[in-house]
Amino acid sequence: MKLVQKRSKKTGLPPGTLVHIGERKSEHVTVTVFCYSTTSCKELQVEQVDQLSPPADESMIWINVGGVHKVEMVETLGKQFSLHPLLLEDVTNTDQRPKLDDYEAYIFLVMKMLSLTGRKDIAVEQVSFVLGKNYVISFQENGTDVFQPVRERLRGGKGRLRQSGADYLLYALVDAIVDQYFAVLELSGEQIEAVQQAVVDDPKPETLNEIHALKRQLLFVRRAVWPLRDVMTSLSRSDCPFLQHPTKVFFRDVYDHVVQIVDTIEILREMVSASLDIYLSSVSYRLNAIMRVLTVITTIFMPLSFIASIYGMNFEYMPELRSPWGYPLVLGVMAAVGVGMLVLFRNKRWL
């Protein structure tokens, strides 16, 4: 995950020029089409998009494009649906901030999709939506998504998805993305709790690396979710004619979920910061404990070294050197001094 994508290759180009910005996460571009009504549902995999167009009848169509690095395909699909060049430029630029643009004939929505990889890492992917009167086009940065439950509901015909318009389909797709945020935050919460326990029990340099990785991870999640509050507010208050009033209630519910997610992110960030403080405190405490033990040992041996240094002087007239009990007497004095200092330190609770 990169905080900033390279934009230098767009320098000097006129507005509306389609240039893919971001990582090419999949070699092949997949185009899935759902044509459905209250009585039927057809699912197609197409190779060419020049035959796709808005439906002439009352049926609905959902076109999901997996991969935006082939700008020619994006441009062709934009011409078929009369999409603005600036909109298509934003689709191919995967470093967009979540936003909502109203083009009168359609609505353009940009979000960030978070998904869990096999190693329990978080993958960030940009998803762009175009909502028309009876169609929804979704552009994904790669082929992986969280829309499988929506596809199953369309195939089964249960619920109100096939009985409602394209605006409700957009809500279902947005809601699937937002629901995935909760799963990602649950994983982050479990990782933070494990790190906090490791910080208290046995702080290691590897633990510090995990703390910094979690801080970076939450930074990406916050960047993906924070602007979504204003987007959901605008959707729930939009005056777009094909965004029906009953559907706006569902978008307000998504807004509540986003606010809850933002609060959870802030709590997790505070927990990570607290974990870093605990780590530094634990390391400092362990260092102080080691230094205290070394200081006590040094203090005990100082008088013993003093006594030994006196009798290590090579003067000729030292009466104790000729005494037969001199050596054991000096050793006994040194042992008594050492034990006495240990008792003194323990009484003062320095040990």
Can you walk me through this structure?
A hairpin with a 4-residue loop joins strand 1 and strand 2 (41-46). The mean pLDDT is 84. The longest helix has 66 residues, at 245-310. Helix 1 runs antiparallel to helix 2 (85-92) and helix 4 (166-201) packs antiparallel against helix 5 (205-225). The protein is rod-shaped. It folds into two domains: 8-281, 2-Layer Sandwich (Beta Polymerase, domain 2), CATH 3.30.460.20; 288-347, Magnesium transport protein CorA, transmembrane region (Methane Monooxygenase Hydroxylase, Chain G, domain 1). The chain has eight helices and seven strands. Strands 2-1-3-7-6-5-4 form a seven-stranded mixed β-sheet. The protein has 351 residues and is of the alpha+beta class.
Short description:
By secondary structure, the protein is α+β, with helices and mostly antiparallel strands. The chain contains 8 helices and 7 strands, in the order E-E-E-H-H-E-E-E-E-H-H-H-H-H-H.
Secondary-structure element series: EEEHHEEEEHHHHHH
Number of domains: 2
Largest sheet: 7 strands, mixed
Number of helix segments? 8
The pLDDT mean sits at 84
Beta-strand share of residues = 5-15%
Instruction: Assign a percent range to the helix content.
Output: 40-55%
Specify the structural class.
Answer: alpha+beta
Distance between the termini: 49 Å
Low-confidence stretches: none
